[in-house]
Amino acid sequence: MTRATLLFAHGARDPRWAEPFAGVAARIRAADPGHRVELAFLELMRPDLREAAAALAGAGATRIDVVPLFLGSGGHVRRDLPALLATLRDAHRDVDFRLHGAVGESDAVIEAMARTALDASRSE
Amino acid sequence: MTRATLLFAHGARDPRWAEPFAGVAARIRAADPGHRVELAFLELMRPDLREAAAALAGAGATRIDVVPLFLGSGGHVRRDLPALLATLRDAHRDVDFRLHGAVGESDAVIEAMARTALDASRSE
To answer: What is the set of active-site residues of A?
Structure first.
């Protein structure tokens, strides 16, 4: 089994918006250089989920972990993403797609946000 | 000077979406019980920024650190929020409002997102 990670974010008109997501991908690559990681967007930015999944499957991934880079789980994570995953599973029947929870719901991210906010409030 | 923190998030139709943000506020309160923290939303959820700022100013805050709970800085953080801040400064001339960057742009949050995504990709 060859694993890969698909980071799924919302997208925005301003290209600077995506900088933290590129940072997440870069850190994963630094921590695990052999691991293939792609970013994909729901709207306004490219590639979309279908394109990124095709790139990973084409490169030999047989398990793709889809991690939503969203702070909370609203309609995009609860409805749009499962529907998109269903079409990916249809298109790549030999790939095991695993859908994970929104990254912002993890204790580590909540803790880091709280620490960042506290630091801001304690600044001069 | 009495400091307070205003956590500013986007808002969504699904009330479960806000759970991580309530978690951030709870952690700040646990780390610094005397520090006043309020959540506010751009749309779809209450209170809005004006209501939350009025509550903090009414409780005696003379410096309010506004921390955007956004992953990246798109139009909401770069345009909408500064415009909202200008109206708050007009409404509360004795309060020092400090606008901070999107929490998702901090190294700590990017690192926590990368770690969470790696853990997902290494799960069974």
So the answer is: 10
